[in-house]
Amino acid sequence: MNIAVAQSGGPTCAINASLIGVFRQALRTPAIDAVFGSINGIEGIIKDELIDLKLVIKTNEDMELLRQTPSTVLGSCRYKLPRTEEDSAVYEKILACFERHRIEAFFYIGGNDSMDTVVKLSAYLKEKGSSVKVIGIPKTIDNDLPVTDHTPGFGSAAKYVAATVQEIIRDSSVYSIQSVTIVEIMGRHAGWLTASACVLRANDELAPHLIYLPEKKFSVEQFVEDVRAMMAKHKAVVVAVSEGVEIPEENCRSGVVDNFGHEYLSGVGKALENIVRREIGCKVRSIELNVMQRCSSHICSKTDIDEAELIGAKGVEAALAGETGKTMVFKRLSDIPYVVKVESAPAELVANKEKFFPPEWINDQGNDVTEAAFRYFLPLIQGEVNIAMRNGMPLHFKLR
Amino acid sequence: MNIAVAQSGGPTCAINASLIGVFRQALRTPAIDAVFGSINGIEGIIKDELIDLKLVIKTNEDMELLRQTPSTVLGSCRYKLPRTEEDSAVYEKILACFERHRIEAFFYIGGNDSMDTVVKLSAYLKEKGSSVKVIGIPKTIDNDLPVTDHTPGFGSAAKYVAATVQEIIRDSSVYSIQSVTIVEIMGRHAGWLTASACVLRANDELAPHLIYLPEKKFSVEQFVEDVRAMMAKHKAVVVAVSEGVEIPEENCRSGVVDNFGHEYLSGVGKALENIVRREIGCKVRSIELNVMQRCSSHICSKTDIDEAELIGAKGVEAALAGETGKTMVFKRLSDIPYVVKVESAPAELVANKEKFFPPEWINDQGNDVTEAAFRYFLPLIQGEVNIAMRNGMPLHFKLR
User: Chain A within 8 Å of B381 (Cβ-Cβ)?
Assistant: First the structure.
C-alpha cells in the first residue's frame, strides 16, 4: 500500500516536522511502500500533482534538515472542499487519484479548515465504500484548535515571541527618559500567542507589564489608565497586544483616510501607539512581530518540533489501526513534570471551530494573565534544536 | 589608576561585548585598579553616576553572559557635548569627576556622535594639561562610520537580517498564487544593512530578488518594471528595501491623512506595498524588521561579538600607550581567509561623518549589489555564540 500527505493553511515552524513524522513512521512500517507528497495541499491530490517523497528525502540528514525548515515544503492552499451535494466532481477526482496511486491513507496537516476537509472527505469515502483512511494532523501558531491541549507550531511561535520580547525589553530600557513600547502579536480571534509572553516571568522579567487579549472587551480609557499606572512604577513600559483586540473608539483606524477616502487599516499596535502619543505624550513605539512569529525556525522549541514529529507518526499508526475521519490531539497529563500523550478524536469536533483563551486565566482588570496560564505555557517552549548552519546562516531543506 | 567606560547611541548586540573587552583588558593590566561604568553615557560622568564594575561583574559566567546580552547594560544617551567656548561648565564637571575618582582613561563606546565627544573632550583635557586619555570604541548596526572597515554590531544585525529574510522567503513561497513581499531594513542614510541581505546567495537563495538602497535615486516607474520582470521569473518575489530610500512621488506617505489633516508617515515598505497593490494588483505584504535588527542577540555573529570584545581591549592598550582623541578601527587585510587588524585613528576623521555604501558595489539598474559587496559582507556573519538558555529562553545579564 501507498500513503499520501499534504500540508495546508498558514506556515509554522513545525509543519515540516509533522511531515517527517508521517514519513519516518512509514519507513518503519513494512506494509507501506511509497509516501506521496501532495503539492499545495489537497489541490495536489485533485490535480494529481504528487511527488514520491523517498526520491527527495534521501538521508537522515535530509530528514533532520527538513524537520527544522520552516513553512511547508510541499506548499500550501486555502482551498475548502465543497459540500458533496453541491459538487461531487472534485471528490471523484480525489478518489480517482487515490486509486490510481494505490493510496490507502491520506494525512492532512493543517488547521481547523483542513479538519473540515478531513470530515468531508472521510465521509465521502465511507459512503463510496472506499477503504482509504483520512487522518488530520493539527498545526497552527494560533493554538486555537479545540480538543487538543495545544497545537504543533504554537510552542515555537511562543518561544520566538518570548525571546524577541525579552530583547525588545533590553532595547527599550536604555535611555533615561520614560517610554512605552507596544508589541503587536498574532492571533486574530484567540489571544494564546500574546498571552504566552508571560513566560518571561520565569526569567525574572517584569515586562510585558500589560497584556491585552481579544477575549476581553478593550476600553481605551482603561488602557490609558493602565499605562499611566505602570509608568509610575517602570521607566520603560512594555505592552503586549493581540492583533485581534478590537478598539471600538478607534476602530483600529485612527481616522486615517487614503486618497480614495478609504479608511486606512493600521494595526492595533499602531492604534495604541497613537493613543499613547495623544493621551500621554511620552516617547512611544509600536512593533509588529509579523510573519517572523510563524517562521523563525532558528529559535524553534525542541519540545514543539519533537511533538510535531510524534503526532505525525501517531497519525500513521491510527490509520493503520483502521481509524478515519479523526484528528490527532495532545492530552496533557501533567504540567510539572510535563507529560502529554497523543490520542485521536473525531475530526468534526475540531473542524471549523475555535478554542479561545480561557476567561478564568485573564485577571479581573483584563490586562494580564494568571499563574495557571504561565504553568500551561512554560513547558511548550522548552529545549533547543541543534540548528544546522552553513555560511553563518541556517540551512534549509529545499525541494527543487 | 582607575578607568571609566560608557555606552552611547542606539543599542546593538555587540556594545556590551566591547564593554567586556575594556573590562577584561583592565583585569589583565596590573596598573589598573577600578573600572567605573558610567550610567547613561557621558551623562553619568557629568552627574557622577558611576558604578564599580568589579562589584557587579563578578565571575567568568557574568562576563560571558554580558558579552551576549543585547543593548547597553549601562544605559545610553543622545547627549552631545557643547562647544567649549559655549559652555565650559559641563567640561569642568567631567574633569572634576575624573579627578575625584582618579580616572586616568575614559572609553566611549558609540557611533559618530559619540566620536564627537571623544574629539571635544580629549581636546579640552589636553588644553587643561590633564593626562586623562579619551578613546572611542565604535559601534553601530548602520556600519556607516568612516575609516574603519566595518563597525561592531553590524555583523550581528546582518546575520539576523540574513536568517530572517531566508525564513521570510520560505514563508512567502507556500501558496500557488503570485506574491510580492517587501522587507524594510534599517539604515536611514546608508544602505549597508539592506545590502548585506545578498549573503543569502551563499546558501543558493535567489531572493531577495531586488535590493534598493538610499545611495541610488529611486524611481517608482523603474521599481514597478523591476517587480514585473521578477514576477515573470519567480512566483514569490522578495524585495529588500532600506528605510532610507526616498520615494519622491509618494513621499512615503501615499496621500494618507489623519483626522487633523496631517499626512500619515508610513514607512517605505508600506509605501512600496501600496505601489505594488495599485500598479500590479497582486498579493503583496510589507514587513518591517524594526528594532529586532539591532537587539536579536540570540542569533548574533560570533565574529562580530569576538571582534567587539577585541576592539574594546585594544582601546585600553592604546590609552595605556599614551594615545588620546583616537577611535579604534578595523583594517581588513584579506576577505578569504578573513583577516583584520585593529588600529587607532584620529577621532575627528570619524566624528559626525557618515560612510555610504560604495556606488561601484551597486549594479547599473540600481536594484542589486555586486559580487564585491557579497565578498565584503560574508565573513562578518560567520560563527555562532553558544547562547546561555534558561527556561527555554536566552538568559540576559542584568545590573539590578
Answer: yes
